[in-house]
Prior knowledge:
By secondary structure, this protein is of the alpha/beta class.
Amino acid sequence: MDNSGGPRAIILFGPPGSGKGTQSHLLQSCLYVPQISTGDMLREHIQAGDALGQEVAAIMNSGMLVPDDLVNRLVEARIQKPDASKGFILDGYPRTLQQAQVLGDMLRRRGVTPVVIHLKVDYNEIISRLSGRRQCPLCGTLYNLSTNPPKVDEICDLDGTALVTRPDDSEPVIRQRLEEYEFQTRPLLEFFKSSGYPFYEVNGSGRSRQTIAKEICSLVAGKR
């Protein structure tokens, strides 16, 4: 990653099933910066049982959402660590306008330039991808009828158990998740577009994950 212009925060957006998580991991190997996932950090604190983890666990156990202020503090503490000094990849943050505004202030104070990547995938392709997923109820192995099918239709390769469709992979649930994503994310995308930050929309349909990652790396490095 060319840091001649200073450190950069790569902010990834993409609907469920777009491959955003995969891209986040692939980008680490070409940008040489850490991937920061708020979900992972929250789980780590809960497992550690520290003060923050206890606070988060109590909130989640009560059925409430983790408040923006707590998530913002978590991210701010994480990006101050030495491994993030040359930049980082944000996966799953920001999720609200308040988080986006706080992040903008946070990055300005640290001299970090945000680069927003919106991974666009045709929703019909996403529905096909996710509704084709199957899981072995015994060993937990995941399959996809299109991209990673079992050797015997609907049967686990490892233990011969009949595969099942997870409840969140049914088409009605997938469509609802996509609608929720659109409602939640559209204001964030408009915010970043109007803020003048580098903003790129990348086609994630019908292309290999490696090709997509290579394009994102080129965009971030200014070598389009």
